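Encode chain A's predicted structure.
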Amino acid sequence: MEQNKILEGSLYKNIMLFFLPIWFGTFFQQLYNTVDAVIVGNFVGKAALAAVGGPTGTIINLLVNFFVGVSSGAGVVIAMYYGSRNVEKTDTAIHTAVAISITGGLILMAIGIPFSPKFLEWMGTPADILEQATIYIRIYFCGAVFNLIYNIGSGILRAMGDSKKPLYFLIVASIVNIILDVVFVVVLKMGVAGVGLATIIAQFSSAMLVLATLKRMPEDIALTWNKVKLNGSMCGEIFRIGIPNGIQSIAFSISNIAIMSSINAFGTDTVAAWTAFGKIDAMFWMTVGSFGIATTTFVGQNFGARNFDRVRKSVRACNLLSVIAAVMLTCIMLTCYPFLYRIFTQDAAVIEIGATMVKVMVPLYFTFVFIENFSGAMRGVGHSIAPTILTIMGICVFRVFWVAVVLPMNNTLITAIISYPISWSLTAIIFTVYYLSGVWFKKSVKKRYGETI
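Encoded structure for chain A:
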């Protein structure tokens, strides 16, 4: 197993070299999601734009992100074993993770295809977009296995320090998706069905590229199909870290469903504006999320190699770089949002509603940096339950309380969406206090190495 720069050398330089491919990869992933919205918004209409975004996106996040969250435990486990040069355990973790991706994808199909329409109805999806939303989401879940194989497979590669190949795969997938969007929607007039079909074909292409790469890794850890199985003890390690993350993803999605249901009540124009806003602010979330992945990987490998001082320095470096990026993106979004909205729609009412969303939510984006990086650091050392509890209480429970208690007192769009920046700020403060206490690190060292520091 060859060495990588995660364990040595300049932190800032190596973090950026690791971060940039993840960021560009996420950019291309968001690109083909954004192209979906641009094409349906301009060539099909604002009802179709709402159908492929707001309520369907919330349901997809609820189901898919749970399994992606659970499988994130595999990335942490692999990073630790890879950092400590334990070839046998690394190999077992890789094959177990692939088995989890296939199993999880099949479960997603079994849940998503028959039950998503009912979920849309429960969320109060506007009647004029319900049929199109149902068509899109059913097609989307037909590709659930490909989705999880890519996400988990790319997580395996990143855990071992390779953030470039997932980027290349997403570039290919983005090109495939964009071409097929034009063919299916603009040329063949397939509407939202064409968008869904283009998406799952793109996901299939990236999944196949990931599998091919895993098969070409060094012989002692290369993917071999007869070794792909759910190893009991390894599943236990992965799930111990991953299940809290999956539960957190569900809690996030439930709180977002509560907000989405209130937004649905304001009508199709508001849902369309929310959909476009979700594409615009994806630039911020993919940046913060990419630094979060870098934090978890650098912390995980260095913790596995017992480079404890480098663990702390990695978190500080990722925080500083994340804050700088967050402030820059905030300034860009506050300045350029009128132009950005017009990429998706020319409807004046939708753009006006979208402007309100930007002004309320964007100024406090930077606070989420500390939630992402501190929770990533804790999970990187296997301390996964505490950040889950902090996030669920500070963000998810707070938002549900807000919708149930505060929103009825003043049922306006601003009241609904201001719960986001308030919850980020409160949770960031809680995370900062807990991180600085050092309890999470001491417990992890004691549990894994039997030492007291």
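Residues 308-344 form the longest helix (37 residues).
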